[in-house]
């Protein structure tokens, strides 16, 4: 009976690894390939994190770390780095890959996702990154605004609504503060550059 229980525990135990700079679908495929080479199949790969049944030994971990490093990815070990990577990936997922931003405050959303007090998360992030979580969110929201402006499918009013800005003026002010340009001027520049490239 005890032997059967031990087998069951081994079957349901999973391992999680956290990986820095893993921010795209290409990175996810690469991590899957490297794990496959090590004999680890059917992993659950998300941005910044991979989970799979069982464990990998020290030798396998070392090989994985080295192969990921060649591709610019870093296997994380210490707790603070792991927490920061989790925060960053939640924000990137939320802003760049979600159809709709969460209805709750970002602080509440991040805190709920990670199961930590937001003040603790904010302090760790600021201490290591040298910027606040809020500043990191703003930078990514502006990157998303740039993408949406280039796609040219939404008006500025629709973009400000989609990204939960209180008004178009608020979005424009934040955009200018980060890029030095107005959203309209940025869009004109990109369109002009595109037209020039097409003329070649």
Under CATH, the topology of the largest domain can be stated as Arc Repressor Mutant, subunit A
Please provide the ordered H/E string of secondary-structure elements: HEHEEHEHHHHHHH
Name the strands of the widest sheet in spatial order. 2-3-1-4
Structural class by SSE content: alpha+beta
How far apart are the first and last residues' alpha carbons, in Å?
75 Å
Report the radius of gyration as a whole number of Å.
21 Å
Low-confidence stretches at least 5 residues in length (pLDDT < 50)?
1-12
In round numbers, the mean pLDDT is: 85
Task: Supply the key terms.
200 residues; alpha+beta; Alpha-Beta Plaits; Arc Repressor Mutant, subunit A; four-stranded antiparallel beta sheet; globular; disordered N terminus
